[in-house]
Design a protein that fits this description.
590 residues; mainly beta; twelve-stranded antiparallel β-sheet; five-stranded antiparallel β-sheet; 3 helices; 29 strands; 3% helix; 51% strand; globular
C-alpha cells in the first residue's frame, strides 16, 4: 500500500516560486493574447449601455501585504442623476513576481458584498495582472447613499512568501436615457453579516449560521437572497472528500463530499443554494491553471434564492431572522449574503401568509453507498457514491395594491457524486465525477392568471482524474485531468407569453503531470494544456463566444466571437417585465 499520496493541492512547492489566481472576472482581450503568459480568460465583460459613465474611485493602487483591511469612503456620483441604467464594478489586481499563495479577495460597502473572488499566484518570472467586473445594478439603492467600505485581501509577505498584491477599484454609473431607461431595482438591500462595513462569516459545521434579525418595511412585495459560500481550510477540497467511515481505507479527507447552502426564515427552511466546486489557482496542481484559471476562479457569481413566498410574513412588522448555513460544512466555509427587497409603492401595508412548504420535511441527508473491494494484498478498487435529490414546493400569498399575489417556488435540486479508487503498491488513482443541479420555476398568480414566470436550469459538472504512479526507484508522477463546467438556461414568461430566454456556458478543461524524485521534490512538469470556452446566446439574437487555449503556460490560441458572426457587437438590454432580478451571472444579452 502507498502511504497517503502526495497531495498536490494548493502546493507550496519547495524550491519553486509559483503564483496563480483564485478569483476575478476578466474582460476579453482587446488584442490577441497568443504568446502571453499573463492571465487570459474567455469570460466577457459586463455589457454596457451607450453614453459616458460617471466614475467613483473606491481605492487606487492599494498594497496588500498583511491581514489588515483597507478602508475607503464612498460618495454617490454627481452629474449622472439619481437613477441609473447600469452600475458596474471594475477592479484591477496584480501581484509581483515571486512566491505567494492564492488569496481570497472581497470588497464591501455598508456591510454588503460588492465583489468576492481570489487572487492570481505569481511565479519567479511572471508578475500577473488581471481585471474583474461585476454588475451591481441591483444594488443601486445601496449605492445611492454615502457610506464606508473596505477591501480585504489577507496576505503574508516575508522572506519566503514575497508576492505583493496591488489593487484598484471603481464604480461606473451609466445615466438613464431614452435608449437605456433606469433599471428596476430592489428598494432596499440588507446585509446578513454583523460587520457594519463588511466581512465574511466563518461557517465551521452544518450547524454554524450566518444570521440577521431584521424588522422590514410593512409593504414587502418580493424578496431575494444573494448567497456566496466559499470553501476554505479543510473544506477547500470538499469535492474530493469521502464519508468518514471510508477515509482511512482510501486515504482521503473525511467529512463527505455533499455540500449545499441552506436558507431559513425564523428557523423554517426557506430555500437552498447549490455550492459551486471552485478550484483556486494553487489547487491540485498549480500548472493546471496557468495562465487560464478555472471556472469563476477569479470572480465568484452569487446564487440568488427566491424568498418571495414569504413576502406577506416579512411584512407583518415583527422581527424576522434570515439565516444561512452549509450542509456538510467541515471547517470551513466563508459566507456572506445580501437580502434584496422590493416594496409595493402603492400600499403602506402588505399582508399575507405562507401556505405550503414541503422543504420542511426534507432534510439534506444524502444516500451513501460503495462497491469497494480489498484483496489479500491490501489492494483496493471500487467506488463510493453520494446521492441526494429533493423536490420541494414553497407557496405563499401577499395582499398587495394589485390584489392577492400568490407565489410558488417549485424546485428540484440534485447532487450525484462517484469517487472511484484504484490503490495498490504502484498506483493511487482517484476519479471524481460530480454533478450538482437545480431545475426550478418561480410563478406568480393573481386569481387564476399566471402573471409572471421565471424558469431556471443549472448544472455544475465536475470531473477530476488524479493518478499517482510510483516507479521502482521511489520517484513518482502525479497526472491530473480536470473538467469544470457551468451551464445555465433561464426563461421568462409574462401572462403566458415567452418574452425572453438565455443560455450561458462556461467550460474549462486542463491537464498536467508533475514529476517528483524519491524524496518528494518536484523535478519537472510535462504536458500542460488547457482550453476554456464561454458561450452565450438569447432569444433576442444576442450572442457571444470566446475560446482560449494554453500550452506549457502560454496562450496558444484565442478566438473571440467565433460562432456569432452577425452579432459580435450587438448588445441588448432586457428589463424583466415582472421586475424580478436575474440570478447574479451573465444573463444579459451580448
Amino acid at each position: 500500500m502507498l502511504p497517503k499520496r502526495f497531495a498536490g493541492r494548493c502546493l507550496a512547492l519547495a524550491g519553486l516560486s509559483l503564483t496563480f489566481a483564485c478569483g476575478a472576472f476578466a474582460a476579453p482581450a482587446t488584442s490577441s493574447p497568443v504568446g502571453s503568459n499573463n492571465v487570459t480568460v474567455a469570460d466577457p465583460s459586463v455589457p454596457r449601455p451607450s453614453g459616458t459613465p460617471c466614475v467613483v474611485q473606491l481605492f487606487q493602487d492599494d498594497t496588500f501585504t498583511d491581514f489588515n483591511t483597507r478602508p475607503y469612503s464612498y460618495t454617490p456620483p454627481s452629474g449622472c442623476g439619481k437613477h441609473w441604467s447600469k452600475v458596474v464594478l471594475e477592479a484591477d489586481f496584480s501581484v509581483t513576481a515571486g512566491r505567494q499563495f492564492d488569496r481570497t479577495a472581497t470588497l464591501w460597502l455598508g456591510g454588503v458584498n460588492l465583489y468576492f473572488g481570489t487572487t492570481e499566484e505569481p511565479s519567479s518570472t511572471v508578475a500577473p495582472s488581471w481585471h474583474v467586473e461585476r454588475d451591481l445594478t441591483d444594488y443601486s439603492t445601496l449605492l445611492s447613499a454615502a457610506g464606508n467600505g473596505q477591501a480585504i485581501i489577507g496576505n503574508v509577505v516575508n522572506s519566503t512568501y514575497t508576492g505583493v498584491i496591488h489593487g484598484s477599484a471603481r464604480l461606473l454609473f451609466y445615466p438613464a436615457s431614452m435608449l437605456a431607461p433606469a433599471a428596476q431595482v430592489p428598494d432596499a438591500v440588507y446585509p446578513l453579516g454583523s460587520d457594519a462595513v463588511g466581512n465574511t462569516t466563518e461557517l465551521d459545521s452544518s450547524t454554524s449560521q450566518l444570521a440577521k434579525t431584521l424588522t422590514l418595511p410593512r409593504n414587502v412585495e418580493r424578496a431575494y437572497l444573494d448567497v456566496f459560500v466559499q470553501s476554505q481550510n479543510a473544506d477547500e477540497f470538499w469535492y474530493t472528500c469521502v464519508p468518514d467511515q471510508y477515509a482511512a481505507e482510501v486515504q482521503e479527507c473525511g467529512g463527505g463530499n455533499f455540500r449545499e447552502a441552506e436558507v431559513s426564515i425564523d428557523g423554517q427552511p426557506a430555500g437552498v443554494a447549490p455550492v459551486y466546486p471552485w478550484i483556486y489557482t494553487g489547487g491540485i496542481d498549480p500548472y493546471l491553471w496557468r495562465p487560464t484559471p478555472g471556472v469563476q476562479t477569479l470572480n465568484f457569481m452569487p446564487y440568488r434564492v427566491d424568498l418571495t413566498p414569504f413576502a406577506g410574513v416579512l411584512s407583518n412588522g415583527s422581527p424576522h431572522t434570515v439565516a444561512l448555513s452549509v450542509a456538510g460544512a467541515d471547517n470551513y466555509f466563508s459566507a456572506t449574503a445580501s437580502l434584496l427587497v422590493y416594496l409595493d409603492p402603492h400600499a403602506q401595508q402588505v399582508s399575507g401568509q405562507l401556505v405550503r412548504n414541503t422543504l420542511v420535511s426534507q432534510p439534506p441527508t444524502p444516500t451513501i453507498g460503495d462497491t469497494l473491494q480489498q484483496d489479500s494484498s491490501g489492494n483496493i478498487t471500487g467506488n463510493i457514491t453520494t446521492n441526494l435529490s429533493r423536490h420541494f414546493v414553497i407557496e405563499g400569498y401577499a395582499d398587495t395594491s394589485r390584489g392577492r399575489v400568490q407565489t410558488t417556488v417549485d424546485q428540484t435540486v440534485g447532487f450525484a457524486d462517484t469517487q472511484g479508487f484504484t490503490i495498490n503498491a504502484t498506483t493511487y488513482r482517484q476519479v471524481t465525477d460530480q454533478l450538482t443541479s437545480v431545475d426550478g420555476v418561480s410563478r406568480s398568480r393573481i386569481g387564476h392568471t399566471v402573471v409572471g414566470e421565471y424558469r431556471e436550469k443549472l448544472s455544475y459538472p465536475l470531473h477530476l482524474d488524479i493518478n499517482e504512479q510510483v516507479a521502482t526507484d521511489g520517484s513518482f508522477t502525479l497526472a491530473t485531468i480536470a473538467h469544470q463546467d457551468y451551464q445555465k438556461h433561464s426563461a421568462h414568461q409574462l401572462f403566458g407569453i415567452s418574452v425572453y430566454s438565455a443560455k450561458v456556458g462556461n467550460t474549462v478543461d486542463s491537464a498536467d503531470t508533475l514529476d517528483f524524485d524519491a524524496s518528494g521534490n518536484l523535478t519537472a512538469h510535462t504536458g500542460q494544456h488547457s482550453t476554456q470556452t464561454f458561450a452565450f446566446h438569447d432569444s433576442l439574437g444576442g450572442c457571444y463566444r470566446a475560446d482560449v487555449g494554453t500550452l506549457d503556460g502560454v496562450v496558444s490560441s484565442y478566438d473571440s466571437g467565433q460562432g456569432c458572426p452577425d452579432h459580435r457587437n450587438r448588445v441588448y438590454w432586457f428589463s424583466h417585465p415582472d421586475g424580478s432580478p436575474d440570478n447574479g451571472d451573465i444573463v444579459q444579452a451580448w
